Amino acid sequence: MFGGRAGNSCETVSSPVLPIALRAGSAHALVVGAGNAALRKVRSLLAAGFQVTVVAPSVAAPFHALAQSGEIRLCERAFAERDLEDCAFVIVATNDQEVNARATVLARERRLIVCDAADARAGDFTMMAVQRIGDLTLALDSGGSSPSFSRRMLGEIAAAFGQEYAGAARTLARIRAEVRTRLPLDERIALLKELSALPVRELADAPDRTRVVCASRSSSLAKEQTRSVAASLARRGIATEILDVTTAGDRDQRHALHALGETNVFVKELELALREGRADYAVHSAKDLPSDLETGMRIAAVSPREDARDAFCSERYASFDALPAGAVVGTSSLRRRFQLEALRPDLTYSDVRGNVDTRLRKLRDGEYDAVILAMAGLRRLGVHAAYTTPFAADVLVPAAGQGALAVETRAQDALLCYELRAAVNDSSSELCVRCERAVLRALHAGCSSPVGVHATMQGTRVNVLVSLATPEQTLRETHEGTVRCAADAEALGDALGRRLAQHYRGTLEVNA
Prior knowledge:
Layout: E1 2-4, E2 18-20, E3 28-32, H1 36-47, E4 51-55, H2 61-68, E5 73-75, E6 89-92, H3 97-109, E7 113-116, E8 125-127, E9 129-133, E10 136-140, H4 147-160, H5 163-179, H6 185-196, H7 200-205, E11 211-217, H8 220-234, E12 239-245, H9 248-251, H10 268-275, E13 281-285, E14 297-302, E15 310-314, E16 328-330, H11 334-343, E17 348-350, H12 356-364, E18 370-374, H13 375-381, E19 387-390, E20 405-410, H14 414-424, H15 427-443, E21 451-458, E22 461-469, E23 474-482, H16 486-503
Parallel strand pairs: 3-4, 3-6, 4-5, 6-7, 11-12, 11-13, 16-17, 16-18
Antiparallel strand pairs: 1-2, 1-8, 9-10, 13-20, 14-20, 15-18, 15-19, 21-22, 22-23
């Protein structure tokens, strides 16, 4: 560390200085003199990695030891102008003011900066007292007026900021290097600012945090989704233990989802596990999340999106159009039901509950002529019916977030949030899901409301398709905008949702 000082010998010691950190590289420093002051400077230079040449006609024993070990180049003679060749800077530290002054003048003629160990005002810079703690360098500058007191103060400061601070600095340095290629500048700045405000111990312990707990529903699909996130996190050296949680939606298999009276029937118990500290993160189908999260929770990451479309599944009929009048179609979603009724009012639509395997079994047992399931779930489980055909997204508009996984954490767990985001997050999927969820919020719609929202992204252009459905009618709107960040995505969705809410007020009642 150096305190910058203009080359004006009339300056006072108290003049303002500019501290800088100078990396050695292959830089060469010349020290003129071989007394105690020179020895302190040499040791500081060697600790910082500089190549050092010492020139003095009379040399003390410590300098001979340094020369014999190859740490310095030692010239036992008077200073000569040729000594200034290939130097980055000069330190004059003799008891002869004339020698110091001559070396200073010659150095400045070569545009070299000079530190005068005997008279701080005569030099261009002073060398600070330095203490290193891991990757941290603590430095204190007294302008050369009281070096012994500076070392004392620095020791007291270092005692207060120990190895935990060095560990915290290493964690932040690692993350800064990683996000440089992952995040745009505004998001990078916000993330590093948030992480820098965390407790020092939490930052210092981050590299040793190798095990976390994930709250998961116990269905085969939920477990498969959780395992995919856990595998991505494991590649960053963090293992996941899975905590099985039964949700309200899992317990009640008789009633339709919209009849359960809650908007987060598959989420509340998982969030409770997070709040109580029994789990560190939870994995959800993004379509199951309410449009407004509970206070203290955040979505840490959104996975790459699987096929977002709904699928027609049947053991007897090749397509939705092939179903005969009166055929029974199983779906527990009002969104699907109302859109399908608009296409085929001649069919019978019946609630079907249970996980994917259960619904396919009921289909095979003949309880339904067809069921409607999410393509993403079928693909993740590797299952299908005899006839499995996806609906085009503009025919049967998917639910907000459908096909993507949302990883939820406590809002204050910034470090885990970062690790999950680095392991799992897909930028384009996240922007589309954020846009879709913003539409729901603006409409005051819940995840079980009869609203379909589907966003697709090409470059920075996002196209959004919205379906507002009732038993009487289905209304469609499309909108397109430029999205470069999360704020853009949410603003686009919010503006579209507000416009729809105002335009269709009184026409459509959306249940929150």
